[in-house]
Amino acid sequence: MTSAEAVLTAESAPAAPASASVGPVPGATPPRTPLVARAAAELIGSALLVAVVVGSGIQATELTKDVGLQLLANSTATVFGLGILILLLGPVSGAHFNPVVTLAEWWTARRGGAGVTSREVAVYLPAQIIGAIAGAILADAMFGEPLVKWSTHDRSAGHLLLGEVVATAGLILLIFGLARANRLQFAPVAVASYIGAAYWFTSSTSFANPAVTIGRAFTDTFAGIAPGSLAGFIGMQLIGGVVGLALVALIFMPGRSAE
User: Fold this and answer.
1) CA distance 235 to 222
2) How far apart are alpha carbons 41 and 238 in whole angstroms?
3) pLDDT 10s digits, 145-179
4) Long-range contacts of 61-68 (CB under 8 A, 24+ apart)
């Protein structure tokens, strides 16, 4: 039913020796990549991510009436799809596909870390949202569903909102924790695995992404969310992002040298 999303950011890493070949760290935002290319990567990546989530949900409901099997099929397709998209597009844009990740990286950049600028945020966020909407429409088109039909799947219950806080906080903790620990090369597997697990251990099935949440409102299928539930979900995702950054600051607190 849900999506994941997710994506990658980078914080500062030790400088490479002059003799070493310089290339983008998987999940990092390469500074020399043209902004138009990064925007295209975010738009296409977000579109394909939502197409995977929505399309696999439609396929699952056509193959079985067992809700458990439907969720298993949906989560498995999302794990593989997300991992591939991060691996492919991470070296171009950082493979955020997620406004919360982009805003979190912008915040760390303001505080002296590496990350996106305000101008890049202004480009990334619309690209992610437009891509997510396009991905939902594409999935509906592939399965002969109405191209745009507002979802009737209400997700406004309080326990679901709590699930979104937990799912998003965990995603931000994972991504920025990997960056602090200089382990971003494991991001494609780690982020996809986390999202797959969060499908099952969170009550909301881990949307954890405002752009994907908006896109899924455009399809009245297995993965949809009613427009009336958008504000609550997106608000909780933003809160989860703040909680995730606070946990990163607490757990990965820089050590102090002994006097």
Assistant:
1) 22
2) 23
3) 999 999 999 999 999 999 999 999 999 999 999 99
4) 61/221, 61/222, 62/143
